């Protein structure tokens, strides 16, 4: 029986980091993945998405500058954009595995599951470890409706070689909005159906509503407060049925995506046999990221109950787990987390929304403005730019910052620094920034 100091499930951002840091201190490390190596971010998430988005960005800028310096009709060639993204991502699995092996880590493939809290079984063989790390991430939630099998997943979006004439996204969260914007610019007639009354519900309503209005102007059909009840295949097309106030409606489409959220990937691990406790957020962990029921089993990244499912959080958590396994006795401390939806324009936020500040009984005031007419936005003929900042009355500290605009994802990083450094809003505005830049606009917020 193979025996390890540390055995890791999952080769994404979190799993790889723990494996490398533990191997670097001389531990005997094993790692396994049920799919190709590399995880969601590099294969089916952040990176291929941003690569595909590059042509949408180029398209948008040239479309907006059409009568102001750019001549000729532009078109996104989806197949070229797809091949471009693939060129970057294709080699990552084998390079990741090569790199892990070079560092002395034993690499496995397949579906392993726990036999007891120190033993797993893979293809009938037992593997034992002193410590386990579960970093298996998340997977699309099941819609639980007839015809669900016809809905494609976000991973399958990255196999889409041609632009569908019509496409429906069930769910107007991060993924539905990002993919919807891309396909709309590439020529699809996009419909987004969401069960809630606000798309991008974790984001501030002011910025999310502005983005929704702009998305509708672009031609995206957004249907809210709608419960999708079934999907039917008719010849080569799909009919999606949904209810609003008990009234059944239907839309026909060439392609449907399930973008209704993601759930922890724990179903294949047999965690009950290892006495590892879970809930709907993932594996229950303490501040050291140990399972609350089995201290020698850690969880990090999307799968841990502590984390928002974002790449930077997966790295932070993995580092805490690696440090603890290497004897450093660390607790997870999470600062305010910036997050962005990579639509065009982008929608970004950090800290509290206004509703959350009210719920937390904060004494605060807000400033908000539609700044679409400001110079930076006008310069590129972008249609939308706006912000809302939540400021604590007594300390003038930033409780939350929310921006929608072409460079909102970069601007929000400035707020991340200010909030980490406990700066007041005035002090952030007193910083001298380059002119004329998007960062410098913050001085006028
Ligand atoms: C479409 C999309 C776009 C995204 N864009 C962004 C973005 O722009 N910015 C951002 O911060 N975040 C983004 N995210 C989220 C980000 O990808 C995740 O937070 C991050 O990848 C999580 O890393 P992880 O290591 O925890 O898990 P993962 O990267 O999911 O890795 C988990 C690994 O475990 C494997 N696995 C699963 N089950 C088992 C099992 N039973 N046994 C063995 N292995 C298993 C999986 O195959 C996978 O390789 C996006 C996500 C999606 C889906
Ligand atoms: N740019 C980024 O950082 C980025 C991009 C993509 C994904 N992610 C991460 O991945 C996670 C998952 O993204 P996601 O877009 O799948 O989920 P999400 O939670 O962001 O959005 C899901 C949406 O689907 C709706 N919904 C749920 N069930 C539904 C149903 N049955 N019918 C209609 N609508 C339904 C919800 O109301 C919600 O608006 C995000 O929370 C985020 O952390 C991040």
Automatic annotation (TrEMBL):
Cofactor needs: FAD
Superkingdom in the source lineage: Bacteria
Domain FAD/NAD(P)-binding span(s) in chain numbering: 4-311
Kinase recorded as keyword: no
Occurrences of domain Pyridine nucleotide-disulphide oxidoreductase dimerisation (ranges): 337-440
Keywords assigned: FAD, Flavoprotein
Family to which this protein belongs: Belongs to the class-I pyridine nucleotide-disulfide oxidoreductase family.
Name of the featured protein: NAD(P)/FAD-dependent oxidoreductase
Species in which this protein is naturally found: Nonlabens mediterrranea
């Amino acid at each position: 029986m193979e025996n390890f100091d540390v055995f890791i499930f999952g080769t994404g951002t979190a799993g790889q980091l723990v494996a490398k840091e533990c191997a670097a201190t001389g531990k005997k490390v094993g790692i396994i993945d049920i799919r190709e190596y590399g995880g969601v971010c590099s294969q089916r998430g952040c990176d291929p998405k941003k690569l595909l988005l590059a042509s949408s960005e180029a398209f948008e800028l040239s479309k907006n500058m059409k009568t102001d310096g750019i001549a000729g009709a532009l078109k996104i060639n989806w197949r070229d954009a797809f091949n471009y993204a693939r060129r970057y991502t294709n080699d990552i699995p084998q390079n990741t595995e090569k790199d892990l092996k070079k560092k002395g880590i034993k690499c496995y493939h397949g579906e392993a599951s726990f036999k007891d809290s120190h033993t797993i079984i893979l293809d009938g063989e037992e593997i034992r470890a002193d410590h386990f790390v579960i970093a298996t991430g998340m997977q699309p939630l099941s819609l639980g409706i007839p015809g669900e099998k016809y809905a494609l997943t976000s991973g399958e979006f990255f196999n889409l070689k041609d632009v569908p004439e019509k496409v429906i996204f069930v769910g107007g969260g991060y993924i539905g909005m990002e993919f919807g914007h891309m396909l709309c610019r590439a020529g699809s007639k996009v419909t987004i159906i969401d069960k809630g009354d606000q798309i991008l519900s974790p984001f501030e309503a002011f910025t999310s509503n502005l983005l929704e209005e702009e998305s509708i102007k672009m031609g995206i059909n957004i249907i809210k407060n709608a419960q999708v009840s079934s999907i039917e295949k008719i010849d080569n097309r799909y009919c999606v049925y949904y209810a609003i106030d008990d009234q059944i409606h239907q839309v026909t489409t060439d392609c449907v995506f399930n973008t209704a959220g993601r759930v922890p990937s724990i179903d294949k691990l047999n965690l009950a046999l290892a006495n590892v406790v879970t809930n709907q957020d993932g594996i229950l962990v303490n501040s050291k990221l140990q399972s609350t029921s089995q201290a020698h089993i850690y969880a990090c990244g999307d799968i841990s109950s502590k984390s928002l499912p974002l790449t930077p959080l997966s790295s932070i958590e993995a580092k805490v787990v690696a440090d603890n396994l290497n004897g450093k006795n660390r607790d997870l401390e999470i600062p305010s987390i910036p997050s962005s939806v990579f639509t065009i324009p982008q929608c970004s936020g950090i800290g509290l929304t206004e509703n959350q500040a009210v719920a937390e009984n904060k004494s605060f005031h807000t400033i908000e403005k539609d700044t679409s007419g400001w110079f930076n936005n006008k310069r590129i003929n972008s249609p939308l730019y706006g912000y809302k900042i939540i400021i604590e009355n007594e300390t003038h500290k930033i409780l939350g910052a929310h921006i929608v605009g072409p460079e909102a994802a970069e601007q929000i990083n400035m707020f991340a620094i200010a909030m980490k450094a406990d700066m007041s809003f005035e002090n952030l505005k007193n910083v001298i920034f380059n002119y004329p830049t998007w960062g410098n606009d913050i001085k006028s917020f």
